[in-house]
Amino acid sequence: MTNLPKEVEFQQAYDELASTLTNSTLFEKHPEYKKALEIVAIPERIIQFRVVWEDDKGAVQVNRGYRVQYNSALGPYKGGLRFHPSVNLSILKFLGFEQIFKNALTGLMMGGGKGGADFDPKGKSDNEIRRFCVAFMGELGKHIGKDTDVPQVLAGDIGVSPREIGWMFGAYKKNTKLWEGVLTGKALSWGGSLIRPEATGYGTVYYVENMMKYASGGSETFAGKRVSISGSGNVAQYAALKAIELGAVVVSLSDSKGALIATGDKGISPEMVETIAKIKVERKYLTDIASTDGFSSSTKYIDGARPWEHVGKVDVALPCATQNEVSGPEAEALVKAGVKYVAEGSNMGCTAEAIEIFEKNRQTKTANEGSVWYAPGKAANAGGVAVSGLEMAQNSMRMKWTTEEVDEKLKQIMKECFENGLQTAKTFVTPKEGERPSLVAGSNIAGFIKVANAMKQQGDWW
Question: Is residue 114 annotated as part of the catalytic site, yes or no?
């Protein structure tokens, strides 16, 4: 990677994968995979384009648009779109690189990609956002298709919702005269899948359920657990609601301006989550409701903070906001708070330092001593793209599955995702007696092997 411009986020994602492969027995047993890693690290294609649109005052505006078509060994490129001023190639390459292996772990036939623009929807009118979406799809539409590249709105993608997907789908249809499943995350009334909005949050909780069952021999559940969640968008909301449904006490949510911490024994209620969901649709912040009657009596708001150092005793931590939202010192605080399970609902939610702290704790403490068990986003938050894959299948068949059918398929995918990482870790990173297998290593290796083997059989390396 030394001949590339400095790409901090992508380099972190690459180093995290490469280090776990190197520190396992994979390259010792199969040295040829070193060449596969070198090849898979380079995107098959990067598309960069300008997006020219008109604001409400009639002034011309311009943004940069991107699509990183990273790897198609397992199927059409699949990955979300992000509209945010921070969007750049480093971030999209990191997200696309992670998406390759995440999609592989779902067991569905999907490649990996990511796209977006440095457009900021905040402060824009609905008409301005619509005009931008139409202009964006005017260029992106030349490079996608149901068997080529299927972008999506994911719960964790910033600035893009089913509304924006609808505008982009309409523009694609007008330009191509095709009604096809070229975008997922559509409205339920015209091709969207049930459980799609909930899928990433629900899937993260289902993944942790499997961690608990394995760790306890089937006796441990979410009932009575104190669960700290960061974020307050789609992923965080549905992770909170599912955890509460399973008997947990949710003790925090947050956004970019601060953290909401529960002060009572009952935690954050479903009604409070519903209120938060409403203000987030209006692009407001937690600070706008923190002092209202429904919140001030049972929560406290900490301006400019993330929740990890303020929640007190906690059993489960679910980073569900954005990348690098758990630092080294915050990881240390969670360990001191008694956390047993950490699972990323966001992509690369923990810094490299935080992961090292969690993994060192897992290695130096036995399961009986209450070691921390960490699950990376490419495994724990795969539920969102999994149901996007199920939406593609439903579109292809021109049918819709019931809520129960989709939810059951999601549970099974998350179970298989967990077990695949678990068994692969046992094979290539043999744990010591009393030590739980490394889910980060197992998930990385399992996803990589599946993609590398497909690439080899298709002649991409030999």
Answer: yes
